[in-house]
Amino acid sequence: MTQHAAQTHANTDAPGHSNTPKPAAQRKAEIDAALSRLAELHDATGPEAQSLAVAARVELQALWHADAGPATAPFVVQRFERLRGRIPLAPCRVAFLRSFTVELALPILRAQAFCGGIDVTPHVGEFNAYVQEIIDPASPVYQFKPDVAILAVQLRDVSPDLATRFADLSSESVDALVEDVSRAFTGWIDAFRANCAAHLIVHLMETPEPVQGVLDAQTNPSQSEAVGRINDRIKAACRAKRNVYALDIDALMSRYGRETMHDQRRWLMARMPLATGAVVALCRQWARFLHPITGKVCKALVCDLDNTLWGGVIGEDGMTGIRLSAEHPGAAFQELQRAILDLSARGIILAVCSKNNHDDAMEAIRSHPGMLLKPDHFAALRINWVDKASNLRDIAKELNIGVDALAFIDDNPVERAWVRENAPEVTVIELPTDPYLYARTLRDSLVFERLTLTAEDKERGRQYAENRVRSELQAQAGSLEEFYESLRQEVVIEHVTPMTLARVAQLTNKTNQFNLTTRRYTEEQIQSMSDSEDWRVYSIKVADRFGDNGLVGVAIAQFKGAVREIDSVLLTGRGTANLLTRTTAGLAAAFFVTSILLTINAKRTKATRSLPDQPAASDAEAAKKEGATGHGGGA
Q1: How far from chain centre, in Å, is Cα 190?
Q2: What confidence category does residue 469 fall into, taking pLDDT thresholds of 50, 70 and 90?
Q3: CA pair distance 33, 30, nearest whole angstrom
Q4: Other Cβ atoms within 10 Å of 415 Cβ, number
Q5: Are 282 and 393 in contact (CB under 8 A)?
Q6: SS3 labels along 525-576
Q7: Could you read off the pLDDT of 289-329 as tens digits, one per residue?
Q8: Beta pairing, strands 199-203 & 148-152
Q9: Distance (Å, whole) CA 482 – CA 614
Q10: CA–CA separation, 76 and 506 (whole Å)
């Protein structure tokens, strides 16, 4: 990989106050000055200290964005270490089970992770001893107690015959080797899960350059087909276990190019098969998994309009003047909209924040023939002349999520800088000057990575759009009771099932606002409780006349003799009225029921107000009160 390519793809989320890069030496001097001043302050929690810490973090991210690599990594890591306790960092213990040298990658991974708000503590297993370390329950890897383990091995180490001597193999020998390697990986995954509850990332096998050249594609079995069969079996083994994920090395090679990724000299001298730029790319790929695992993700994408979703200024150029089509020059903006729609399908909430005349902008969104995004795609709209930091805070409040759960795109570097300075919790995505790179930049953003996708995730955009209609109805209703009656809400409470397990575990880790205990559980822990005679785990689903809100709540109870102890009761802010919240929470935790259907009407809402009846605090406020550090909010 060229140095330019490595820098382009190193960290497209990183901020900068303009599109003209600041010299690295100047940036480093400013970072050190801010950290020195920070160390001198007597009040480590005051406004000046917070401002200096945020400024240092922003500059470190920009430095890494401009020059990601082994030369910059030590500086970035050392300065972030000085910021511990002053900025929110999610700790993550990462163990490597490997058949090649990864030590050279560790500073780069730590720098990449720090820039995303993740504090990685690495542990590297013995070289090529991954099998023994996996099967031995007392191995140093398990004693390290990792949050994440990465199984990084190569085909030439697992099966040298398939990698380098394929031309000598009979069809039967190929089938036998494919079976042997596939069974080995399945066994290692099973053994790891039996010994450890950590997340496991498994490298798939890289398809080698065919030893038979173009003949490989003409033969059966071919070398590439044999490796593909192994990878299919590895992926199936990963899917069969919770919190085990496959990392597609071939996809990485395809993007950056095999010749630029590999370094034969480094392999022979240091058993490191990758070139320097490729190490940066691999570390970024590892970080793609660490972000969703640690919760360093965004729930919503807030978009500017002019020169972002379309080319030009709607208030000046009009409907016929803005650039938005399948052809140049509007194709770049339509490609960005396609990327945004793909994020929506992944469960990302969409919103608009634009300085514009509301009617002009809405006409373009509704009626322009080049628009792929329509009003129904957006859960919140702020089209006015209020400053964007204030509008973003309002959007977070309306969506009932934390400000730190927002990502923001805007073509204007001045607006981006304003948001960073006045709403530093927001992830500001640094768009390049070339609109044709907008879509790629958005797709590269690590904060939108997901490792699971539930049915509720897929429907989230529609559900939030329906919530907008509910809010409008509530504003028109004569009373709260009239509003509740008009919703005609129904609630279904049932035991957790294999189909709802992932969503239940997801809610225990994401929901802060109405969460009586804020206890966090993995899928394995939820499954274990569900299998136990001493526990009951319930899911809570809500629907009303506007649509199905899906699974929005969880109740967990433990039975100690004749005592029923409520372990967890939580509900998201989506589609739940306050009295309904109180009622469903109490029922789910108290009774042995498989399914309860409640129809709530106005006559049943006249009850004494209690804690669940009170207006819920925002997620940001709840997280602050609870001392939470992750991205909070309703799902």
Answers
A1: 26
A2: low
A3: 5
A4: 20
A5: no
A6: HHHHHHHCCCEEEEEEEEEECCEEEEEEEEEEEEEECCEEEEEEEEECCCCC
A7: 999 999 999 999 999 999 999 999 999 999 999 999 999 99
A8: parallel
A9: 18
A10: 32
